Amino acid sequence: MGFHISGKGSAVEPPTNIAVLPAWRDALSHVIVATEWEFTSSWETVKNSSLFVTNWMDALREISPDSGAYMNEGDLLEPNFQQAFYGANYPRLYELKQKYDPTGLFFALTAVGSEDWEVQVTDPLPYSWNNNGRLCPRSS
C-alpha cells in the first residue's frame, strides 16, 4: 500500500465546468492499494491477491465514502466506477456522451456510458480484466 500525502491546495482562480473528479479538489491524501503475482501463479493465487485489494478498498470506501479514485491508476473492476472516477460530474458527462456518441463508438471498460455495454467473453477468467470478446449492448 502506498500513500501520497499533500496539503490542500487551491488554484489561483478555481476552475469551473470541468470533468475532474470533485473529490480531487480537496483531497489530503492519495492511497494506492496494489498487489502482484508471478505470471506463473495459479488462478487461486491471482484470486486471493485480487480479493486482498478489494477488501482493503472496501475499508477505505467506508472511511471516506465521498472520495474517489484516480482513474489512471484505478481498478478496472471498480464496483461503482461512475462515483469513484467521475463523482457528481457523471450525470452531465453521461448526457454529453449520449449526445455526441449515441452509438457508443468510443468504449472503455470504465468510460462514461460503458454500463450500457457488456463484453461477452467465451472463456471468462475469475478476478481478471479479460475483456477480449464481443462488445454488445446490454438489454434493458
UniProtKB/TrEMBL annotation:
GO molecular function term, any single one: flavin adenine dinucleotide binding
Protein name in the entry: Berberine/berberine-like domain-containing protein
Gene3D superfamilies: 3.30.465.10, 3.40.462.20
InterPro entries: BBE, FAD-bd_PCMH_sub2
Protein species of origin: Aspergillus kawachii (White koji mold)
Residue span, Berberine/berberine-like domain: 69-106
Top-level division of the source organism's lineage: Eukaryota
Pfam family name, one: BBE
